[in-house]
Structure formats: C-alpha cells, structure tokens
From TrEMBL:
The keyword RNA-binding does not apply. Its cofactor is pyridoxal 5'-phosphate. Belongs to the glycogen phosphorylase family. It comes from Paenibacillus glacialis. It comes from the Bacteria. It catalyses: [(1->4)-alpha-D-glucosyl](n) + phosphate = [(1->4)-alpha-D-glucosyl](n-1) + alpha-D-glucose 1-phosphate. This is Alpha-1,4 glucan phosphorylase. It is an enzyme of class 2 (transferase). GO terms for biological process: glycogen catabolic process. GO terms for cellular component: cytoplasm. Keywords: Allosteric enzyme, Carbohydrate metabolism, Glycosyltransferase, Pyridoxal phosphate, Transferase. GO terms for molecular function: glycogen phosphorylase activity; pyridoxal phosphate binding. Pfam families: Phosphorylase. PROSITE patterns: PHOSPHORYLASE.
Amino acid sequence: MFNNKEAFKLLFQENLVSKLGKPLKEAQKADIYTILSSMIREYVGKNWADTNQNFQFHQKKQVYYFSMEFLIGRLLGNNLLNLGVLECVREGLKELGWDLEELEEEESDAGLGNGGLGRLAACFLDSLASLKYAGHGCGIRYRYGLFEQKIVEGNQVELPDYWLQKGNEWEVRRADKKVEVRFWGNVEIHEEDEELVFETHNYEAVTAMPYDVPVIGYGGEHVNTLRIWSAESTMDHTEMSGPNNYYKFIHYNRSVESISDFLYPDDSQYEGKLLRLKQQYFLCSAGLQSILGTFERLGLTIDHLPEKVAIHINDTHPTLVIPELMRILIDVKGLGWAEAWDITSRTVSYTNHTTLSEALEKWPISMVKELLPRIYMIIEEINKQFCGMLMKKYPEHPEIIPQMSIIDGEQLKMANLAIVGSYSVNGVAALHTDILKKREMKLFYDLYPTRFNNKTNGITHRRWLMHANPALADLISNTIGTRWMNEPQEMVGLLKYSEDIGLQDRTRAIKQHNKMKLASYIHEKQGIIVDPYSIFDVHVKRLHGYKRQLMNILHIMYLYIQMKQNSTIERIPRTFIFGAKAAPSYSFAKRIIKLINVVANQVNRDREVNQKMKVIFLENYSVSLAEKIIPASDVSEQISTASKEASGTGNMKFMMNGALTLGTMDGANVEMHEMIGDDNMFLFGLQSAQVLDYYQHGGYVVKDVYHKDARVREVMDQLVTPGYFGINELEFGDIFNSIMSTNDEYFVLKDFASYVDAHLQIDLSYRNSKEWQRKSILNIGHSGKFSSDCTISKYASEIWGLKGNQAKLQAKL
Ligand code: 26V
C-alpha cells in the first residue's frame, strides 16, 4: 500500500480525515507527523504479528537483550528506510507540500540511554531484526530520558527531558501482558512434604505494564519487539475506602510510579541508590515473567528453557535476572537447587562494558536484604556454594576467596555474580577483552577460561550511513553495487577505487555539502559563522576525564597562543567542534565544559585568529545531533587514555562516514589500525601497556613534564593567570590543581607533546587533498567490518546458539 507514491498520497489524506478530521490544507506539521507514523505502525502490524506467529510455530530460540538503556533516537526516518518506502514517502509528501526531513524533527529523540552502552543496545536491535533473528529488547520506559542540556554563560544546565509529552506513536500499551513485581516483605520458611517452602509476606506489589515498540528489520518483513516496562499502581478502588486511605493511595501511587520515572544520568560513577536497585529488579522480574509466559505457550517442560531462550545482560545492571530466575524455578516451579542452577547458568550470558573501577556496581548488602529478601537469600546461597568450590579448588590460596566472593563484607559485587551465573562473559573490543582476562578478571578467567570471549562492538550501517548520509550511500552503491547494504563487509570493494580521481572528487563534494549543512545549523543555533572549507575537527561523546576533552581544549589554547605570538603561522583553518553532556554530579566534567566555552568565546571573537580557527560547543548532544555532525566531519577525535575506553563506537561511525581518526591505541581504535594501518589514521600517545605499567607504579611524575616542556607549562599557566583568555587569576585553578596534584590521572600532559605533533600531521596531510580523499575512501571501505550485523552474527552463533538466516554472512566471517 506504500509502494507507489500515488497510493501513498491517497491513503495519507484519507487517514488525515478519518483520524484527525482535517483536510490537508488545515493540517499542521505535528498532524502530518502523527498521521505518517501511525500509518507506518499500522502498516508493519501484519508483519509484526506474522513474525511472532512464525516464532511460535517453528519454536525458534528467542534471545532477550536485557538493558537498562536503549538509546534509540528517532524512529520515523529509520523505519521508512528499513521498510523500503523512504523515497516513495519523501516524494509523495513533497507533492503534498511537506518536507520529510523537517517532519523528522517533530519526533522526540528517545534518549533512554546515557551513551555508548545504550546506543549499542539500539544498534543491536536493528541488526537482530535485519538479520531476521528472533531477538528482542527488554528495558524500562522511563518517563524522563537523559536530561536536556542547555549552556548558560558557559555552564551546563540540565532540564528534564519529558520525551512522551507529544505522545509516542511507535509504542503499543499491552495491558493484557502486565505482570506483578514484589518488593520488601519478610520471608517465611516452612516444610511441605519434606521440602522447604519459601513464602514472602507483607510485600509491596507493583504493576509492570509493558509497552511494545516494533523493531523493523531491513526489508520490512521481519519485525521484532522492544518491550519497555512502566511501573503502575496495583491498588484498585476497593482498597481505597477508609478515613485516610485516599491520601495513602496518592502517596503510594507516586512512590510506585517513581520506579520508572527517570534514567540515571551518570554512567561513570556508581552510587548505591535504592531507586536504581528497584529499577533493576523491576526490569529483571517483569522481563523474566513475560519470557516465561511466552515459553510456557510452547508446551515444553522447563528443562528445555536454555534450548529455547537466551537471556543476555548488557553490563551488570540486569544481573538480578540470575537470582530472580532461580527464585521462579525453585519457589514457583518447584525445581531443586541443582537443576535450577543448571538451567539458569545455561540461559544467561553477560557483556562487560567497562574496567573503570568507579563504575563497577557494588550494592550495600543491607539494602538488597531489605528490598529483596528472598532474592538476597538466593544470592547468599549462590555465594556459599561458589566459595565452597573455591576452597576445595585452591586449598593453598585462601586469599583468593575474598577477591572472588560475590559478597564481600558489606557489599554485593554484581560483576562477580554475573560471571558466576552466566555461561559466557564477553568484552567489547579485543584489547578490552585482553585486559579483562589478564588483569581485571584474571582470577575468574583462570577459573573459567572457556567462558571468556571477545565480541568487538559494531554500529548499524543503516542508521549511521544509509540514513545519516544518503548521498554517500548512493555513491557507494553507484561504485560497487548495492550488495553492501545487506552484506556490509562488501564495502571493501571500495578499496580498489581509492585512487580513482572521480570517486575522490565525489566523496569530497558530498563531505563539502554535509559541512555546509552543519555550518548552517551552527549558524542557526548559535549565530556563529564557521568556514565550511576549514577542517571540521570533532570531539563528541560523554564528558569524562578519561575521554580527555581537556587535552583537546588545552591544545586549542596552545594553538591560539601560537597564533597570537606569531601571526604569520601557516595553518589550514580549523573548526573545532565539541558536543558532550556531563553527569549532573560530576563537577570536574562540568568545569571542562565551562573552560571549552570560555576559550571558544575568546577565540571566536578575536579577529586576529578567527579566520583561522573557531571553537564550537554544540548544546545537547544526542543521537539526532550525532546524525547531523558525523557525516560532516573531517577529523574524529578518539583520544582516550589508552586502556580506558572499552571499545568506543563513535570511532566507527566517523570512520564509516569518511572522517580520519586522530586517536590513541585504545578500544576498537586498535582494530581499526590493524585494518587501515599507520598511514590512514593519526595515532599518538602512550600504549595501553605503558599506561597500565605506570598505574602499577603509582603513575608518572607530572611535575617533570610540566617543567621540561615549555608548551605544556605555557598552556597550563594560562589556566591560572590573567592572560590571553581573560581568565581571572585562579578561575580554573581547580582544573590546574586537579592535574598537578593527582599526578595527572589520565596522562593529559604526558601525551600532550605527541598530540600536538599528530595535529601538525593532520595539517600537513590535509594540504594534499587527493591523498586525504584516498585515505578517507580506505576508511569507508574498511568500515563495513564494524557493522553491528557482523557483531550480532557472532553473538548469535558463538554465544546464543541461534541458527541464522544469514548463512552467507556467517560463511564470510
Ligand atoms: C554505569 C552506571 C553506573 C551506575 C549509574 C548508571 C550507570 C550507567 C552505565 C554504566 C556503565 C557504563 C559503561 C559504558 O557505557 N561503557 C561503554 O560501553 C560502550 C559499548 O560497549 C563502549 O563502546 C565504551 O567504550 C564504554 O565506555
């Protein structure tokens, strides 16, 4: 019904009238958006139902990807693309007087995630559906997504992101599938038929209401489900009578609904907040109950669970699926411990996404015990058995036990529970997995060597290339044909054209066009004119010490000083672009945002230099903003302290759009380098082994670098002296001190000199436009390997034991 323009136009106008009672000429932008998205949802309805029936009929193994975050962004454009009706709808709307791109802006950006971990989950959903796997998301329908960032006088201010305000056309409320989740209470134990029976009394019941979002695979036939849960009150009006019950009712409602109120906005600092623990259990319990309901309809006995269901946990946040599954198997299904443990530990698999110790989850025992008394008993038993086994295995090394124990004094270590209770533990890039095996999780690796494996992250080339950069996608198809769209690793076909002048000219022209568009966006939003022929040098990601936005801005300060001191310096004009949200409580990160804005202000106003450089801090970095920025970038800053960035996925998005990487040997940059070599990226800085070595020996001596390197000293001193930046003395003394007195935890000054050199190399390299374009094409050609289709095929065959429909792709990997 959508596959020709005329039919679409007709149907569209019929819908406008029947659903909104408006003829076309009276419709507003929001009406057009609403009707269009509702038509698409209805259009996929049949395939959605067919996909589910097909799963049931063939009793296919289902994967459930449990994640506290799904950073999906906008769906309209992507859904049209995957349905194969993008062009027909675009053309049809144009004839009706509407611009599709403008309509896409009407949709709120579903920001149900912080950064890499949440966006990875969204890319995986797209690949699971596109490869026709039975793979679904299980998450929380937060009323407030990640905060909206405003910059006021250079400072970050957070505003609530009430993304549901305009309604959400993509979701379907499934009241028929609601379940109950229980908190608090006390466990009573009695014996029945010589078996111990555990019953929890005086618990608080919460209704978990599912909302289903269709996940449309490429081609539109296969439609999986993202099920997100909302907390609602279970009390009905009969419980309300009585003198003060009305107030109690309101109070109770509020406290219950708060469970799915908001996404925690800190992804690097763990805090043992009760509400967060409630959210985690809420997700795990609701998700599991729903999975078991579906499984039961197959009519198989419960011992078949691991054959038919795989549960994957995205970091440790959903680790409570392990004890919760044990609880259901033992207390509800009546299984014995050993059988329940066997089933559970053959069903759950776990991905680790960070080695930052401050981000590792450790819950206070007292909190877990009170909120989830039965779950705590089960965790205690898992730990007892695990430690018993360790004592037998390592009788000579009792010191190992507290290190590996799940319960450590007053703390519950979630990573330890996740490793012990799952059959697969993976890292997200080769280097990261290596660090897990050799360092962070060495003891566990020694115990369970076959459990550990690597799955390097990926990104969906549909959103990040075909949708974000359609002109480049067309150019690729015109050059090598269209097979790459289904088999992204076929993009290597581009490599042999890297010297082709015609292709170089066309990639250059596309980049230029994208840069012009971004330049107008910047002008519209901030009133600043940037030179679209300058190098667009981009650093967008969460703000964190280890991601070293500070090093970038210090280098900009250094360049500025140089230009002020010597106006004849020849540099290719540069536009430095930043986008980053800082966790609201991470004050150091917020200070760096302020510093970037202070420097930007000074540089952009200074007529002596502002033809040669500009600094832009783009407000409210988000998925939809990333889609505008990345296709317009020349240089991609991936400059984390080596060993700290588990993988990075932004690096892959930039590469796929033809930007050249300025990076350290960290995360997936290492694998990028393996493919494209030294010549096609700009590497600098310490290697991860060197960094880790320094850490083992208490760091390096920052004062030595400060005293030896005049450039470092000059820039650092600018932070605390009233110099070029109009910075009042000591205004940025906190940043100065934090570097000097913590021995520069993230090696900003240690890597500074080699970062400066790498920037110089970029300048030289960009002068040779043909060479630059050749490198850019090589990057694009190799980027297909980073498609999440490749990553998901590996998860499917090596972790989840799924039989794919993508035999061809599998054979190639
Ligand atoms: C931790 C916490 C702590 C408690 C509060 C909420 C919260 C939310 C998230 C996290 C873990 C964040 C870990 C993370 O995002 N890791 C990133 O994962 C990406 C996907 O694998 C990877 O590319 C990035 O390198 C890695 O930093």
